[in-house]
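Handout, tutorial session.
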Amino acid sequence: MKFRRIFFGIALALIVASRAEAVNEYQAVSEIPQNNGQVVTTLTSENSGLNPEYSVPLLPGTRPVPPNDILPNVTATSAIVIEASTGHVIYSRNAEQKMFPASTTKMMTLIMALESGKLDEFVHVGPNADGVEGSTLWLNQGEYIPLRELLYGMIMVSGNDASVAIAEHIDGNVANFAEHMTKRAKELGAKNTQFKNPHGLPDDNHFTTAHDLAILAAYGYKLAEFEEIVTAKEKSYDWIHDFPKIIHSENQMLWIYRGGNGVKTGYTDRAGRCLISAAKRDGIQIISVVLDSEYMWNDSILLLDYGFKNVKFEKLVKAGEVVKNLPVMSGRKKSVKVTTTDEIVMPIFGNDEPYEVVYDLPKFLNAPITNGQKVGKVRIMYGGKEAASTDIIATADVEQKSFFRWFAEKVKSFFG
């Protein structure tokens, strides 16, 4: 145990030391000559979505690229870019091919945990979690750790031990949890996915596709705390055994890419380098997935860049927009203006299916009414599914009439 802690301390120190070199695989230089004398393009904040302090040489891949591929510099065997709210596919390469997901599996483990409603419970670390192979948080058997904190550790440093502890806490054992993972993934639209464990260690029957992972990531952003967890760069917890009790995210895209907000790295010898990455700008969430990539950071930068360059935006609903005057029953006012709370900006994909704006409102309101009271909803529909929404609220207080005032008005109306 002492050796494990010493080893963990050394590993953590190396992570902290290297974090500033976010693109250490591709040290930033202005020109890198290839064997044929050509110059490799360098991605910078001026020609890419990179943050200003970073620049990344675009290294050439060694694998054959599919004919007529519009992103030949992407080195991944399988890749996809989607817009999250609609699921619209902006680019894909072998995106329906079954692949090994490695630790990107943990994104589904996170989704299952968030849906369990048990985030405030303490997780008992059992013998199956203690010492599990691969990347680890160095948990010890017998510890009790808050589920929410384990989720941060699992996503940030890809703790396999955390994922096993979480699975056993929620479903009793890994097999049951994996079965429920698969069932839930298919319900969410990931039709070509099968899970056999919560961490992604190799198993012939544990597979997914780039498209399925993108679908699951898009769903994740609809869940409370998902984005908060997958965007965390640094956390400190008392249960971390070694000084300085800090963990740092392995996802370098959180530092190097403008608007980067997720999601999960992965690697095994069989799966290769895998990365689900994401970025959000001007309210538009773009998700990319690369599986079996030679240069997963480069690939993800190229894919996210392509996604943002090929999505235009349209404001379909303005914040504070007056929807209508709604009649008020039994109120001191006959009607009240109702308005939208937030704006809705949606991506436009050229000749693709148009959006439908649906207003869910009652025919009238009953007094009393308070200013800011929710009275309805605006929904943006795409492909028969809700892609976005915002509330409709009343803009004034409306008191209820007293019985005597109501009676007097009725008498006055009767005698007309």
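The second record follows below. Compare its token runs with those of the first.
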Amino acid sequence: MNKNEELMRNGSVWKAIFTMAIPSVVIVLVMIFYNIADMFFIGQLGDAKLVASISVVGPLFSIVAAVAMMLGNGGCSLISAAFGAKDYKRGKNISSLCFWTAVFGGVIISALLILFSTPMLHFLGANEELFASSKQYYIGLSIGAPFMMLSNMLSLILKSEGAVKESFMGNIIGTVLNLILDPIFIMSFKMGVTGAALASVLGNFAATIYYIYYVNKKSNILSLDIHYAMKKPVIILSVISLGLPNAIGSLLSGFAGTFSNQLLGKHGTMSIAAMAAANKCTMITGMTMMGIVMGCQALIAFCYGAQDEARLKEVMRKLTILTVSASTILGIICMMARRNIIQLFIQETSVLDLGVDFVSVLLLSCPIIGIGYIVTGYFQGTNRPAQAIAISILRQGAVLIVSLYVLEHFMGLNGIPIAYVVADVTSAVVASVVYFACRKNVYSQGEFDATNDLKEVC
């Protein structure tokens, strides 16, 4: 039994949580820097329209992130459960299948994005004022879509065997390269948004190469050998079903961002820029909570695979304490520093003031922002995709999108940030109710049998 397996099976629960969560949170923080790098350096050019262009294109690439997270989280849950059940060969089957699905899927998505670039940009809300600069950024990122998908998927897959540090290293490589190339391409070479896109593509490419090297040379239970994928390709259906909640959440988040931009556009292009900067501020709290849960999802699945009911309950209880405490503290810090954070992207005083107003509302739901992530992670880790999908649809679809249109209609521009708070609070309450109801049913009816689930799936 290696040290990662010993920690997940018998070690202190707090130690296991922090061991899995801290590197994952660092990865997410690195991803935040990666995400805001383009907007930060573009913002230094002093043109809020270019910032708005990046914001317009951003939601589209939720498609790429959705597929990557679907394969990565679904694969991670199945591999970790197999690992807990000591079925090590299964890890090679699933990891290889996820890799080659991402390769072919990334190429297809890239081709479709380029082919339908004009109608997609119009749908995203790129008006005449923003169309030219938005298209430059869009095409650059579309070309690099396969590497974006592979780097994100592989970073999640590595966590299934406890290789959190290696997952972190790949993210560091990609982000540092992006941060180095952004000012060179954007400012020194005067490439503008095209340079920002190129820097992102090269960063994802470098991370992908590192992950492939690790799996091929150092991993014990993961494999990229296509022969493993061809043995039981039907397993991909189980990967998709478990990863679908993440995909749906990411896709609906992208659609919500698009609809939000369309509504903001009614109040002027500068409103889009202000909300884009505001969202970067709130992203710090939301993505950190997502990082904690994603880091511990392998631990949840491992306990489920090992049929350790008591340990699973303890993991969930302490994970909830950690996320609620951390999100509250981060929310307070972001609220106090909100003007300074938004100033990183926006210089115009009127746009800056509007962004600060947006953030002041958006941060109100910080204390409960992690609840939805925890419940979704629990259902994925315990092989219950239907419940996880329902929670994902609730916030980003059924509540958020409807709230955006209703509140904007009655409250105007002020209703848009309020819609996000309404969605967060509603989804947290419903997710908690569903979790306790389903947990009680699972334990009382004796359905806690990961071994049978794995046999049915694989």
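Points raised in discussion: The chain has one domain: 3-457.
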